Amino acid sequence: MSQKVVVALGGNAILQPKQEATYENQLQNVQKSSEIIARIVKNGHTVIVTHGNGPQVGNILRQNEEAKDVVPPFPLDVCSAESQGFIGYMMEQTLKNELRKLGLDNPVVSLLTETEVSKDDPAFEDPSKPIGVFFSEEEAKELAEEKNWVVKEDAGRGWRRVVASPMPKSILGSDIIKKLTDDRVIVIAAGGGGIPVVKNEDGTLTGIEAVIDKDRSGFRLAEEVKSDVFMILTDVQNVYVNYGKPDQKALTHVTLEEAKRYVEDGQFSAGSMGPKMEAAIKFAEQGGRAIICSLDQADLAMEGKAGTHITK
Ligand SMILES: Nc1ncnc2c1ncn2[C@@H]1O[C@H](COP(=O)(O)OP(=O)(O)O)[C@@H](O)[C@H]1O
Ligand SMILES: NC(=O)OP(=O)(O)O
């Protein structure tokens, strides 16, 4: 049965933590992701793609800061837009090429998307979103001192710079995204969580410096385009209970009640699986099917043969 699916690609699908952030490395990874997404389209589903930008937006911000004596630096929301633009470009091009190989002619378009947040969001007082590259604790603390950064440990993987990450209230233009998908267009949207903007009292919009979590914005997008499935692709085949322990157990099909119980038990790290489970649970609460799985099993998971599925 044909279904509408919002696919959220994790940071690993664009750049693995140990890889150098060259354009070539990122293009090669994105090409692999596109190969898999094309298979989902081939199986008859309607796909909307969204993606992370943590490493990329951090690097663009740093490029701006390091070159500030030569070229005036841009604010973080503009860096977000830049990262959305270049990742969207890689995805659009590789997806068109992969669809063509499978004999498909669906149009593909990547849309620069703004996401509305609240200027009063408490996240502005407590930066939590890791961006850019990983450092040792010592290096990170030195950089924090020297450059006035906030740095934090990132889910056991090293230390990173962190910035504010407000909750997404709505994805601007999701009505247009929905119309395009109804017309067979494969849309890449709300990359990097979307460009954070606030609505002023007179209805105008202004950019605000932050990076939105793409699992949270992916949920909003899936909700607003009335998707049947919200699929979060990452680097583990399943969500596990007792993850990393000798008795770890893969979750395949879980009900909302079970999922919430595991969250209460503290089974999912705040900086990694936590936001994914939070987003998946919200989507399942509205009656949709949420899937968390590895990128290479995405097409199998869509057919119910891999990954962790959460339903009401
Ligand atoms: N209970 C769990 N089950 C599976 N993975 C978990 C769990 N808790 C933490 N993780 C970690 O979550 C990581 C995926 O999150 P993250 O690296 O933020 O994803 P991405 O960058 O792909 O969006 C996995 O690599 C794994 O190390
Ligand atoms: N914006 C965002 O959530 O990016 P990552 O998935 O790369 O952290």
Can you characterise this structure?
The structure is a single chain. The chain has 312 residues and is an alpha/beta fold. It has a domain at 228-311: Carbamate kinase (3-Layer(aba) Sandwich). 38% of the residues lie in helices and 23% in strands. The protein is built from nine helices and 17 strands. The strands form four sheets. Strands 3-9-2-1-12-16-17-15 form an eight-stranded mixed sheet, with helices on both faces. It has a four-stranded mixed sheet with strand order 8-4-10-11. A three-stranded antiparallel sheet has the order 5-7-6. Strand 6 and strand 7 (159-163) form a beta hairpin. Helix 1 crosses helix 3. The model has no long low-confidence stretch (mean pLDDT 96). The site of adenosine-5'-diphosphate has 15 residues, from strand 13. The site of phosphoric acid mono(formamide)ester has 10 residues, from loops. One of its GO terms (cellular component) is cytosol.
